[in-house]
Amino acid sequence: MQRLKALAFCAAALLATGAEAKDKIEEHRETVYLARDFIFIESPAIEAYLRDICQRLLDAKGVKLAVPNILVQSSEAFNAFVDTKQNLVISTGALRAMTSEDELAALLGHELSHLILDHPNDKNALRTLPLGMETMAAVRDASAELKGQKPTYTSDLTRYSQDGLTSSQATNMVWSDFIAPSWNRNQESVADQNGFELMRAAGYDPGAFGELFTQLQEAENKRTERMQVLKKMLVVRLRETANAKAASGALASDVKIAVADDAAEKLVDGLDVFNRSYASPDERQAALADYASAHREKKRAPRPTMHLTETLQEGEGGQLMALDAAAISTLNALAAHKQGVAKLAVQGLQAAGSALPSPHLNLALGSFNELNGDREAGEQAAQAWRISTRPPAQAYLWVASNQARASNVQGALETLQEGRKRVGDAAPFLPNLVGMAREAGNLPLARDYAQECKEVSNDSVADKLRSVLSEQSAPTGLYAECVRQLREKPVQDQLTQDALGKARDLFKLKKK
User: HSE of 335 in the Cβ direction (CA atoms, 13 Å)?
Assistant: First the structure.
């Protein structure tokens, strides 16, 4: 009870600053990431440190560009990218891999250079794809396969904690792979050169690019492996869509299922995100050495004071980075059903108790508690994450799943509605909104949500299948999942079927 009272107090306190945080999140379109379950840490000290390095790099060359909005993603992957809304996303995996502030400045300088050179606008780096069920399911299935689990995507709230929470780190990485921009070799080369100039002007050692290139190549190799799994899963999901349409007669009579299958595979193969190819670390290092030789400067800028050790390896920042690593290890162990490993990994989080330095840590601690029989502690952790500054869709689904299991259907419905509004994308919530509205006995509302499912755009990839598929279609993707939750044929579909039946009867009469 004391814990619940504390949560209520925290929620009230957050309301005071919530408007300012909400404005910032909306201005930078952070909700694109929250709808895709990106997990962000909350650390003003680490964010301020990264902003200071960015500012120093920009000021040194007199670049009139605002420091981007810093988002620190909880992920074991080595990752950093910028987008069209002036966000710079950097993973805790990348921060932990840094051996010096020079290396961190090289990474930040490279990403800032993409913004300076206006690359995101050329590439539309922020992939604002509508969240169709095909992509959501493919990402979940790919995440499960990467963790050695059986791919089984479900949107049932009562199964969410078991199937959704523990695979969150893998899901987080795959989404990040999918959304991050795919620069071409020339864009990467000029970003290396511009980053070199920023580092040199700010007094950093550009030689740190050598180690960075090696880190980036290792990360790219791992990313390629993950993307191959995602590609396979996405093709499977698109084929299911095509085959469902074929089985319902939605395909033209002279178009075979095999044609739709082939089209689905070719569409996925054509996506830039699955086809990027970068120069090797040696090639990038050699090209940068040639550039440095051709652009020498006589006067060396003074070295800045370095703060990497005290910010990321010691003190509060170092503690948070260590706890984040423990949280990732805990979730990975739970996903692999290695209880002994999870029990060791979670000890640091348990020692921190309710004084967790970042709300995102509630995911690992709450998942461990819940899967080890302490459901109340799991529910409290879910609520603590939900009332944080940047709760992803997953946080609301977790809370709603607990409410649904406790037969608090109305509470679950309200949580889903709140999440939909806060995250700014209906797709992650619509199937469960249909199901909870039906369970609450509000069939008109359930039918309205099901109709909205039909109206919400499907994956941009799936939309391209229209060149092969007829516009007339059976429920597929997100809409099919909503219909499954509704447990009845939508009125609009039934009317269409009735009209088609009458048309066929009239046709038969006229032929006679």
Answer: 26
